[in-house]
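Weekly structure sync - notes
Attendees: PM, LS, DV (DV joined late)
Agenda: review two folding runs queued last week.

Item 1: First target. Sequence and structure tokens pasted below for the record.
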Amino acid sequence: MSITSPITITLILYAALAGAYLLVVPAAVYAYLNSRWYVASSFERGFMYFLMFFFLPGMIVLAPFLNFRPKPRQIEN
């Protein structure tokens, strides 16, 4: 089976698309959500919910490894 056979090209393409759908794009969405969550407009928040729904399988795969809890407040005396 050479690298130029149609089956090999198809398998490589499916693996690349699956990796992008399950790992790459959800990581970018997590970074976007982390930076814009508290300052987003209503339209942008709806877009965020759409991204979460559309990439939900990848979000579930990455969720155990990420922690986006709010930072503790600094209380001045």
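Item 2: Second target, run right after the first with the same settings.
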Amino acid sequence: MSTGSGADSAPAPATHDPARPSPTTALAGDPSGRPSGGTDSRKPSMFSSLKIRNYRLFFTGQVVSNTGTWMQRIAQDWLVLSLTGSATAVGVTTALQFLPMLLFGLYGGVLVDRLPKRKLLFFTQAAMGLTGAALGVLTLSGHVQVWHVYLTAFLLGLVTVVDNPARQTFVSEMVGKDQLANAVSLNSANFQSARLVGPAVAGVLITAVGSGWAFLLNGVSFLAPLAGLALMRTAELHKVERAPRGKGQLKEGLKYVAGRPELIWPIVLVGFIGTFGFNFPIWLSAFVDDVFGGDAGTYGLLNTLMAAGSLAGALLAARRATSRLRLLVAAALGFGLLEIVASFAPAFWLFAALLVPLGMLGLTVNVTANSSIQMATDPIMRGRVMALFMMVFTGGTPLGAPLVGWITDTYGARIGFAAGGLISALAAATVGLVLARLGGLRLKVGMHHGHPQVRFVPRERLATAA
């Protein structure tokens, strides 16, 4: 049974707690073979957490609502582009949806640590369904204007402030610590499999009957997770200690993260990548409209190809028993470099093909950061830590999206895409070097079986070899 152990208050960064992974262990690997986060090193089956009834209900409901969510995302981007003809306007819509997370995300984490998560999810999932239904009615009635889309995007963002950390941390209550990494990966696989279906359905609906039906169906889709929550057996949930009401809990959460390099630096990295590297609604719509001269169906196809790579990345992550920071850094660096390569692809087929490995690397960054952070965090602090993680990963979009949209409008889709990739790659390289230095590692360049090899090794091992 999973229980909270209480929060440490601002330990010194130099202090090493053997119960949590150090940067050395996370980057270079533990010689004992013990996985990061203290989990069982035996390799899990790909779908092991689905054996748990409560998680199966949650997973099934999320399949339906995630499909509706992706339908709405595609329809929303295309509707804004149709109403305004501006990639900047698409960026503003995306920014408004994530602005509440930037402003209030940490307060959402405090609420999640205090309140029962299942009851919170009843409220948030119902509210998200209502926003989709409202936008559907406005669009089908012919009264929709761009400010309506802006408003519903902002309201949806307000609900997400609580919904995101509640959904992330409720997973541990359903499956326990042993299955947490597998369940986090399957949640991502769930989201990405819906991303395969949602854009394709949205493209057909937009072409055939308009965006309104995609919004309306998204609203109806939230009945599925509400039913799943209602059917759960509460006695089978793992009990987690809830934080009592008190002053200074937000500050306590920030001090907790600041004192742990294995938490703060992954959060910094995903903050840069979320702000500048994940602006695909802007880039893909601009590539379709300005570079390749496509339509809504083409836009849906590109999103589907990227989702295929993301789904493959999620399923591969579900088979990994560990979540190491060296994998996070390597995937983030590859993600940024591949964005730069894709931005200058001369032909549509090559650009589309590169989206598959790009989706795989982007998903690997997300899942590895998510699971490693959750497993390294005390349960009583998990809501605040995951709120901070989601705040910097998605909340940076209000800062990055308008800027990226302006660069895309001013200098073209290729330059905008390349700029996002360059910032992501530089952030990955910098964080990797910082973690290596904190962990007492040095970069070693040499030959291995006749091939060049670049890797981090402990300074002691390097000195012995010398």
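Discussion on item 2: Residues 275 and 361 are 16 Å apart (CA to CA).
Action: LS to circulate a short write-up before next sync.
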